[in-house]
Amino acid sequence: MIDLPFKLGIHPINWVGEDVKEHGADTTYEQILDDIQALGLTGTEMGRKYPTDIEVLKQELDKRGIGLVSQWKSVLFSDPAYRDEELKAYRKHVQFLKEMGSTVISTAEVGGSLHFDPRRSPNEKEVLRLDEAGWQSLAEGLNLAGAIAQEYGLKLTYHHHGGTVVESPEEIDKLMELTDPSLVYLLFDTGHAYYGGADPLTVLRKHEKRIAYIHLKDIRQAVLDEARAEKVDFVTCIRKGVFTVPGDGCIDFAPIFEELLAQGYAGWAMLEGEQDPAAHNPYEYAKQALQHIESLIPQERR
């Protein structure tokens, strides 16, 4: 394996879609975990095919030498009416991850989202951006959730994400400004940064002190251009194949890895492709991504 100061893992979304349910619908968790083991990787996120029974999940991971790094947690903090309910759910989520030995919690606001907000109706067409009251409520909720995570020795890492209210570079900046740096960290996602209109390297450099978790994802520029021209929504972009693994798209990962090495980043970085596994074999694509990453690392670190 590559000698890095940080740990490389992989997300099961490469095998089974989270937002596009037909992607990998027939894939078993055993196949995913066997592939991860064969790749020589030791970290994964929770996926919808994984066992939900803690003892079974621990057993399946342990026998393959894999740890559970994190799990996505949707929150609806922008609406104060949901706060108490959301914080109770967040505590339960934290307790599960603590039991699994995780250290970070992938967290994203779903208020205003076309696909994730439970208050939205199917015929609506656009993300509803937050007003100032919504931003304040979101920041307050995240600070409270971050304190819960801290209570258990974990970190809330905020996942800026396509199709949500924290998507653009300006929205990432605003969220970082409004939240407590000791309670709310950033999940830096290269693909979602680019999708949201940011230069990933700029986001990395600007918020390096807040970054506690990383997703390494690439973008197919031609697909993104076509999707933008057609004005399609986020989930349609996934179906079109806008995302892929590092080295297969348009993002230049060389300066990103150079910056991570210079910063001495020591957390987890997860490979993500989020594409149709029937068309893009997850194991083969992950293997190619690892080879690409290795080619970017100075010889003395290999």
Task: Set down the secondary structure blueprint.
Elements: E1 7-10, H1 29-39, E2 43-45, H2 54-62, E3 67-70, E4 72-75, H3 83-99, E5 104-109, H4 132-151, E6 155-159, H5 169-178, E7 184-189, H6 190-195, H7 200-206, E8 211-216, E9 218-219, H8 221-230, H9 234-240, E10 243-244, H10 254-263, E11 268-271, H11 282-296
Parallel strand pairs: 1-11, 2-3, 4-5, 5-6, 6-7, 7-8, 8-11
Antiparallel strand pairs: 9-10
Task: Explain how this protein is built.
The chain has helices spanning 29-39, 54-62, 83-99, 132-151, 169-178, 190-195, 200-206, 221-230, 234-240, 254-263, 282-296; strands at 7-10, 43-45, 67-70, 72-75, 104-109, 155-159, 184-189, 211-216, 218-219, 243-244, 268-271. It is built from eleven helices and eleven strands. Helix 3 packs parallel to helix 4 and helix 7 runs parallel beside helix 10 (254-263). The chain is α/β, with parallel strands linked by helices. Helices cover 40% and strands 15% of the residues. The chain has a seven-stranded parallel β-sheet. A two-stranded parallel ribbon has the order 2-3. The chain has a two-stranded antiparallel ribbon with strand order 9-10. GO terms for molecular function: myo-inosose-2 dehydratase activity. Its EC number is 4.2.1.44. It comes from Paenibacillus alginolyticus.
